[in-house]
Amino acid sequence: MATTGKVRGSYAKTPARRREILEAGIDVFSAAGFRSGSIREIAERVGMSQAGLLHHFSNKSELLAAVLQLRDDRSAEVVPIDDAHAGIETIRGWVALMDYNATVPGLVELHCTLSAEATAVEHPAHQYFVDRYVFVVSRMKHAFERMRDAGQLVAGTDPEGAARAMVALSDGLQVQWLLDRSSVDMAAEMRRYVRGILTVDL
After folding, report:
1. Fewer Cβ close by (within 10 Å): the C or N end of the chain?
2. Global confidence as pTM
3. Is residue 198 scored above 90 in pLDDT?
4. 186 and 102 in contact (C-beta within 8 Å)?
């Protein structure tokens, strides 16, 4: 029998439904925090059972990693990382992102908690974080290389070293901030570090 090639039933809605779940996940974790937010609340927001929700993911950890991936996709709107815009604007965007992160503590908590747990090779989100750090460091390195070639970096500054230091500082500041939000201004500390290796105004 010939077929039309169309996907029938609930499978036809899977990509859109998955996106809806992830959007709800960001809303829940942003508002309630990682510990207080729950799969049940996400499911309620999209009108599904918890079992139905998890049908779209292998397990809870995969769902949480997918929420973080969507957050990263949104971050790309703040931090220009494409070849056409890589450079000082990438670094300015990263600092602006630190300011934004201070408004979504639940997502910061999710990132810090899941990234620590995912250091275990068998963790479902392990590869996501491996790939994420490779990608982020490589794009930051590219931005610093562009800046070096434009004379915007202090002489002797290694682009890859600067990229890794920037990412490491970002992660460390987020942990310190989660422990005591009155003790550190993440964006201000990041700005202070970056200004120390630039020859131009940030």
Report:
1. N
2. 0.78
3. yes
4. yes
pLDDT, tens digit, 9 for 90 and up, residues 56-111: 887 777 888 888 888 888 777 778 777 777 899 999 999 999 998 898 888 888 88
Q: How far apart (Å, rounded) are the C-alpha atoms in residues 101 and 93?
A: 12
Asked if residue 202 belongs to a domain, the reply is no
Q: How far apart are CA 127 and CA 120, in angstroms?
A: 10
184: three-class secondary structure by DSSP: coil
Domain assignment present for 3:
no
Please answer whether residues 154 and 202 qualify as being in contact, where contact means their C-beta atoms are separated by less than 8 angstroms.
no
Structural domain of 56? 11-195
- For residue 101, the domain's CATH number is 1.10.357.10
Distance CA 148, CA 189 (A): 22
| Angstrom distance (rounded) from CA 194 to CA 149 | 17
Query: Based on the structure, what is the number of domains in the chain?
Result: 1
Whether 147 is in a domain gets the answer yes
- Rounded to the nearest 5 degrees, what angle is found at the Cα of 131, between the Cα atoms of 128 and 133? 105
In a domain, 149, yes or no: yes
pLDDT given for residue 34 in this prediction: 58
The DSSP element (H or E) to which 92 belongs, if any, is helix 88-101
| CA gap 197, 18 in Å, rounded | 42
